[in-house]
Amino acid sequence: MSLSSLREYLDKNDIQYGVITHSPAFTAQGIAALVHVPGQELAKSVVVKLDGELALAILPASVRIDLTSLEEETNCKRAELASEEEFRDEFPECELGAMPPFGNLYGFKVYADESLARDKEIVFNACSHRELIRMSWADFERLARPKIIQFAARHSAEAA
């Protein structure tokens, strides 16, 4: 999915959104600093494997994923980060690491950390390391239908 395809999807669903263009950046925290968006508001998409099945975990850029919490919240036996090789071909037209949080468009289950639901807006990568989309959380939730659970590490010692 390219930015134009993502925009077409949002337009088709009557979503109000904004596009933020920035110079290339490759980490969620780096992007947040570059565009002056709080790390809590910028969502990053992390591809995980839950009992071997690929899924998308969406959490604030300012925190790390707690795989133990993810296992508990999803009732799976093993949660692990997917390697780039395992998901490289799953997101056509997206730059590696710049996947939007719409795993549902790719046949993946979507899990969002509950802390994202506290904000009125969500900002996320729009298939490249140069563009972001800003939209309402309510619209994102309606389209992506994430299961909202708690899996962001609250302390760095808990982070995987």
Give the helices and strands, then pairings:
Blueprint: H1 3-12, E1 17-21, H2 28-35, E2 42-50, E3 53-60, H3 67-74, E4 79-81, H4 84-87, E5 109-113, E6 121-125, E7 131-136, H5 137-144, E8 147-149
Parallel strand pairs: 2-6, 3-5, 5-8
Antiparallel strand pairs: 1-7, 2-3, 2-4, 6-7
Q: Outline of this structure?
A:
With 160 residues, the chain is α/β, with parallel strands linked by helices. The protein has helices at residues 3-12, 28-35, 67-74, 84-87, 137-144, and strands at residues 17-21, 42-50, 53-60, 79-81, 109-113, 121-125, 131-136, 147-149.
Task: Report on this structure.
This protein is an alpha/beta fold and 160 residues long. The two termini are 29 Å apart. The protein is 24% helix and 28% strand. The C terminus is likely disordered. The protein has one domain: YbaK protein (Alpha-Beta Complex). It contains 5 helices and 8 strands, in the order αβαββαβαβββαβ. Strands 1, 2, 3, 4, 5, 6, 7 and 8 form an 8-stranded mixed sheet that branches.
Count of helical segments?
Answer: 5
What is the CATH-assigned architecture?
Alpha-Beta Complex
In the CATH hierarchy, what is the class? Alpha Beta
Radius of gyration, CA atoms, in whole angstroms: 14 Å
Number of domains: 1
Could you give the order of the helices and strands?
Answer: HEHEEHEHEEEHE
Q: State the distance separating the first and last CA atoms.
A: 29 Å
Please report the total strand number as a whole number.
8
Name the poorly predicted regions.
156-160
SS content category? alpha/beta
Can you give the mean pLDDT?
A: 87
Major sheet summary line:
8 strands, mixed
- The share of residues in helices is 10-25%
CATH-defined topology = YbaK protein
CATH H-level superfamily title: YbaK/aminoacyl-tRNA synthetase-associated domain
Shape: globular
Query: What is the percentage of strand-forming residues?
Result: 25-35%
